[in-house]
Write a structure and sequence with these properties.
39% of the residues lie in helices and 24% in strands. The chain is built from ten helices and twelve strands. The chain has helices spanning 9-13, 21-30, 45-58, 76-84, 92-101, 108-111, 145-158, 180-188, 217-233, 243-246, and strands at residues 2-7, 35-41, 61-65, 88-90, 115-117, 121-123, 132-135, 138-141, 166-172, 194-199, 208-214, 237-241. Strand 7 (132-135) and strand 8 (138-141) form a beta hairpin.
Length: 248
């Protein structure tokens, strides 16, 4: 289970539209990791440090986004030093990398980017890529969406893959209120899968869609087929989707 920590006043104030969560959850899901918590904190060192400290003890991995770079309000690394209770030290690989990207000698603000929590791994420098910063089970990523997506593609090759999740989608032409009680009972009888129900508004040919997810394809298929039969009996079915049905 993974936790995601989004950092930045600009997210909480609505100054920017948050664009990193979906690529992060999608990438993690592609190798079988579920996200158990998403937290958004302001640019305040005490809040960031407290979140790192709590989340890294509760989850297998923590991925943060935002607050690293050469600007005055980038304090994520300093917050991590405080949270991990280790000294900050200049990482030689990071210094060498920065020297290839910026004029030498490095300005104090640029060189500060090489000051990392002791024990940090700097991954990707040898290939000339902007490094992935890892400290034990914490990955510290930038907030710039393009840079983050590049790093997520590399992170999924670093983490040991888990069992992939299978999904089945059922689109219906009635509101959720017509089947909410029935669906709750079905979930109670299917503890090995999650069953979600999502309303849709606008000019679509369906009013809601159901999502069945689980690690075992056969179990997902069995539950989805049971739901499909019930929905067809009530003439609510619009169409089917998801990996289970697409693979057939």
């Amino acid at each position: 289970m993974v936790a995601i920590l989004l950092i930045g006043d600009e997210i909480l104030s609505g100054s920017v539209i948050e664009a990193n969560l979906h690529p992060m959850t999608t990438a993690l899901g592609s190798i079988g990791y579920a996200v158990g918590e998403v937290r958004i904190v302001r640019d305040r060192m005490a809040d960031i440090a407290a979140s790192f400290q709590e989340l890294r003890t509760r989850y297998e991995y923590v991925l943060s986004s935002g607050g690293i770079g050469p600007t005055h309000d980038d304090i994520t690394i300093e917050s991590a030093v405080q949270a991990f209770d280790v000294p900050a030290e200049e990482h030689p690989d990071m210094v060498a990398f920065l020297e290839t990207r910026y004029n030498v000698p490095l300005s104090p603000m640029i060189r500060k980017m090489a000051l990392l929590p002791k024990g940090t791994e700097v991954l990707g420098c040898a290939e000339g890529l902007w490094p992935v910063i890892r400290w034990e089970n914490v990955f510290i990523l930038p907030g710039l969406p393009k840079a983050l997506q590049d790093k997520m593609q590399r992170i999924v090759t670093l983490l040991p893959p888990r069992n992939r999740m299978w999904s089945a989608e059922i689109y219906v032409n009635v509101d959720e209120g017509f089947f909410a009680d029935w669906l709750r009972d079905e979930q109670d009888h299917a503890p090995d899968v999650s069953i979600g129900s999502y309303p849709v508004y606008g000019s679509y040919d369906y009013r809601a869609w159901l999502l069945v997810r689980g690690e075992e394809r056969a179990t997902v298929c069995t539950v989805a087929e049971k739901l499909r039969r019930y929905i067809e009996e009530h003439a609510w079915l619009v169409r089917l989707g998801g990996e289970v049905y697409e693979d057939e």
